[in-house]
């Protein structure tokens, strides 16, 4: 066999092994999705709060006290958020049931104006809606939310207990203090970028939610708090999150008013809020923070949404940021980082690649 045939055989074998490894990893991601999702959220929470603990340490606060206060605050915050989401979900479901007849009557009257074919299509759509199934699904998601909150708190607690030993473990794993410093710097870079993104995105989502709440209150509608909460949460999903939030809010308006003209006016205001913030404020504040390709974000949303469902769409951007930074530091993976970045420059600072 010639040298060229031997090299081709080795490349084919490597590619085949790579496909098998990818399939195994994908199967693991799907089978262990609940635990991995909780772990991912725990890492993000730990990253957001570790800087605060370090700040307390600089104020001469004992590390055990700062850690205990952080864990208490995280537990209270997560449990409050889970309880609030469940309460608002129950309110939306109960109110939607109360106004469902009015919404169906409005749709039926509109379909009569559009002709028999449109009326038949709308009647078929309304008949296909399985409200009981949606309620069962919502109850299942509520149970998963509470269980996930408890598991996430457990992961965060163990991460804090191992926090002081992490640099020592990295140094012993690498066997080289210089290389360990590079790995720690890489981890801190990922944490800084993800934390900055989450903080800025939380601010933008809060402004959007406040404006939607004000529109509902000004119009004298119910479920203002639920609409604002859904807007805040869904805005963390890039691109499609604001669209879904707008559709849900407009549906709530139609169900309550039963008037197409009023729904169009209020829905136009809600859509304008999402459009202006999503196309002006969001890119202006997040452009230099993310430095991610828009097409790459869409691909990440599609992939992680298919693998982990709704939770995957929330985690897609932080995972993509981490992957881009890691790939930028490894020479043979740098082309992937260039493709994932917005301008082809994945680093904010000059590259400092990890040694092979």
Automatic annotation (TrEMBL):
InterPro entries: AI-2E-like
Membrane topology classification: Multi-pass membrane protein
One Pfam family cited in the UniProt record for this chain: AI-2E_transport
UniProt KW Transmembrane helix keyword: yes
GO cellular component assignments: plasma membrane
Record's subcellular location: Cell membrane
Keywords: Cell membrane, Membrane, Transmembrane, Transmembrane helix, Transport
PANTHER family membership: PERMEASE PERM-RELATED (PTHR21716:SF53), TRANSMEMBRANE PROTEIN (PTHR21716)
Family to which the UniProt record says this protein belongs: Belongs to the autoinducer-2 exporter (AI-2E) (TC 2.A.86) family.
Protein name: AI-2E family transporter
Organism, as annotated: Paracoccus shanxieyensis
